[in-house]
């Protein structure tokens, strides 16, 4: 059975690059960007989007609440 | 990429920023637990549909600006006096949901008297206590909760218990008072702990609605800047050093 497919949207300008989301992601989807945002922080982004299962761990732990999480049922995006 | 765009659709949305949080950027350092706890309070308020009837009491400390971040009514107390102000607000307006939001320097140091007596009277309020073992806002000075041997700006060689005493476990003390109905210690450093903390906050607000007495939710948190660590390293250090002294879990639940 295929896993659920997920995706996140990081509000780049609000992210402070703390990296806490990278530690709670079970499939290592998120990394901090080499570039910086307007505040000078290395913002989080989906480095490995295919692995996202939409568990929402990153969204609920983000101290600045800048991650929105989507999840499609398995097979729905084929 | 097209696959991602096919997932990002309103019907697939499972987590978004609650509207009880304001649009303002938090003034906290990157990775600070304050932000996560603010968000959890906002989500609990949204889920219980009590945004119009909730009054928060902000402390002195980094979270003195909390009124900028949650779209509810706020009062701002003098340092340590949040439980006294919460008492007044709740007694004058018993139909409101009242909570104080305090740090360890506020609740367990300068406000010890107010804290203990509000709990002893069993005031029907929620107290949210962020314990990071340090005075974060003023430059990382030693707090009553600083761990033995832990360096702070006023004890650079580490806390010496022969001079400064042992760290105070204020939640255990408050749990012995008959006025408290619920005393718990949680953290927000992993997703599982965040979910548990949210449940604890919800239970605390429900206790208030059931007139059960004082509920205290302690959150063992980090202070990356004060501890001089990266956010990820601070969370690891907290797990290794803070939790053995401040074990997580319910201390009292009635």
TrEMBL record, chain A:
Keywords: Iron, Iron-sulfur, Metal-binding. It holds the Pfam family Fer4_7. SUPFAM superfamilies: 4Fe-4S ferredoxins. Coiled coil: none annotated. Residues 6-35, 43-72 form the 4Fe-4S ferredoxin-type domain. This is 4Fe-4S dicluster domain-containing protein. It comes from Carboxylicivirga marina.
From TrEMBL, chain B:
Coiled coil: none annotated. It comes from Carboxylicivirga marina. PANTHER family: 2-OXOGLUTARATE OXIDOREDUCTASE SUBUNIT KORB-RELATED, SUBUNIT OF PYRUVATE:FLAVODOXIN OXIDOREDUCTASE. Residues 70-219 form the Thiamine pyrophosphate enzyme TPP-binding domain. The keyword Glycoprotein does not apply. Keywords: Oxidoreductase. The keyword Oxidoreductase applies. This is 2-oxoglutarate oxidoreductase. SUPFAM superfamilies: Thiamin diphosphate-binding fold (THDP-binding).
């Amino acid at each position: 059975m295929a896993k659920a497919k997920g995706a996140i949207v990081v509000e780049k300008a609000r992210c402070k690059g703390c990296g806490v989301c990278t530690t709670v992601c079970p499939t290592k989807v998120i990394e901090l960007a080499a570039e910086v945002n307007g505040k000078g922080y290395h913002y989080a982004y989906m480095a490995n989007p295919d692995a996202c299962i939409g568990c929402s761990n990153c969204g609920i732990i983000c101290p600045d609440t800048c991650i929105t999480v989507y999840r499609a049922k398995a097979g729905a995006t084929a | 990429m097209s696959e991602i765009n096919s997932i990002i659709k309103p019907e697939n949305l499972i987590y978004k920023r609650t509207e009880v949080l304001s649009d303002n950027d938090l003034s906290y350092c990157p990775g600070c637990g304050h932000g996560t706890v603010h968000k959890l309070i906002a989500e609990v308020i949204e889920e219980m549909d009590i945004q119009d009837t909730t009054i928060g009491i902000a402390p002195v400390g980094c979270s003195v600006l909390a009124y900028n971040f949650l779209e509810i009514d706020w009062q701002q107390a003098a340092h340590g006096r949040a439980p006294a102000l919460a008492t007044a607000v709740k007694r004058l307006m018993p139909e409101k949901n009242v909570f104080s939001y305090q740090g360890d320097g506020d609740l367990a140091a300068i406000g010890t008297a107010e804290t203990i007596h509000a709990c002893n009277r069993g005031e029907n309020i929620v107290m949210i206590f962020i314990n990071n073992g340090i005075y974060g806002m003023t430059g990382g000075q030693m707090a009553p909760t600083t761990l033995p041997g832990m360096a702070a700006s006023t004890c650079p060689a580490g806390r010496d218990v022969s001079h400064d005493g042992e760290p105070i476990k204020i939640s255990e003390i408050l749990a012995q008072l008959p006025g408290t109905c619920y005393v718990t210690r949680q953290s927000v450093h992993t997703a599982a702990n965040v979910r548990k903390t949210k449940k604890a906050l919800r239970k605390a607000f429900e206790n208030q609605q059931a007139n059960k007495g004082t509920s205290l939710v302690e959150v063992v948190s980090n202070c990356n800047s004060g501890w001089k660590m990266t956010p990820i390293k601070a969370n690891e250090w907290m797990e290794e050093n803070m939790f053995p002294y401040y074990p997580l879990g319910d201390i009292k639940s009635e």
